[in-house]
């Protein structure tokens, strides 16, 4: 194992072990590391990510090591405000498959195995930030007033995710996304099943 490179402490909102609830990796077991803070304000966001405790990289690896799982997902807030190549490399060296969930506003570092982008910024921003980056999935939140996205980047998978009413599904948004997928079969539906099944 390579020697640990000293890094600034990370502001960690929470660490929990659960199942991925959406996207192409839905149903897989993962350690979720929610990093604090976000650079955007989305009206439908239902996640508390401002509280945090500071952990060194060594402390973070130790806490994640309590779970017998090789998969870690960095999420937020916006994890790329803190997630660096040093952090990703340390988890890779420790044997983890490193996944990322991001809003598309910041460029990811090297060392990420799986990149899921849920764009919350203009398409040209995503295009600039992710030039040359392999995007595994694009996941767009959509409500009944929004049409099919027109992404400027390529991905392995394209998903529409119906906007929820807090923790509760919105039937009209779901039906709208179903219609969009039927009209544009290159897209797939991704519902937040962790909310439907009450999985933490």
Structural features, described:
This protein has one domain: Aldolase class I (TIM Barrel), CATH 3.20.20.70. The model has no long low-confidence stretch (mean pLDDT 92). Strand 8 (157-162), helix 4 and strand 9 (188-189) form a beta-alpha-beta unit. The protein has helices spanning 57-64, 85-93, 123-129, 171-183, 193-196, and strands at 10-19, 29-35, 53-55, 71-75, 97-102, 114-117, 137-142, 157-162, 188-189. The protein is built from five helices and nine strands. It is globular. The longest helix has 13 residues, at 171-183. Strands 3-1-2-4-5-6-7-8-9 form a nine-stranded mixed sheet. It is α/β, with parallel strands linked by helices and 200 residues long.
What's the topology here?
Layout: E1 10-19, E2 29-35, E3 53-55, H1 57-64, E4 71-75, H2 85-93, E5 97-102, E6 114-117, H3 123-129, E7 137-142, E8 157-162, H4 171-183, E9 188-189, H5 193-196
Parallel strand pairs: 2-4, 4-5, 5-6, 6-7, 7-8, 8-9
Antiparallel strand pairs: 1-2, 1-3
Averaged pLDDT:
92
Annotated CATH homologous superfamily: Aldolase class I
Strand content: 15-25%
How would you write the strand order of the largest sheet? 3-1-2-4-5-6-7-8-9
Largest sheet: 9 strands, mixed
Q: How much helix is in the residues? A: 10-25%
Indicate the low-confidence ranges by residue numbers: none
């Amino acid at each position: 194992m390579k020697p640990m490179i000293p890094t600034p402490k990370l502001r960690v909102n929470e660490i929990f072990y659960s199942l991925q609830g959406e996207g192409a990796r839905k149903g897989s077991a993962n350690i979720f590391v929610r990093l604090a803070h976000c650079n955007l304000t989305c009206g439908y966001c239902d996640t508390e990510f401002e509280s945090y405790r500071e952990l060194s990289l060594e402390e973070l690896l130790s806490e994640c090591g309590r779970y017998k799982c090789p998969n870690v997902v960095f999420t937020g807030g916006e994890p790329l405000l803190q997630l660096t190549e040093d952090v990703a490399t340390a988890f890779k060296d420790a044997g983890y498959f490193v996944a990322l969930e991001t809003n598309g506003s910041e460029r990811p570092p090297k060392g990420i195995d799986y990149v899921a982008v849920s764009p919350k910024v203009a398409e040209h921003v995503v295009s600039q930030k992710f030039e040359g980056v392999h995007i595994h999935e694009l996941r767009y939140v959509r409500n009944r007033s929004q049409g099919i996205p027109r992404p400027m980047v390529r991905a392995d998978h394209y998903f529409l995710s119906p906007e929820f009413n807090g923790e509760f599904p919105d039937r009209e948004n779901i039906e709208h996304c179903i219609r969009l997928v039927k009209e544009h079969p290159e897209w797939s539906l991704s519902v937040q099943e962790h909310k439907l099944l009450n999985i933490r």
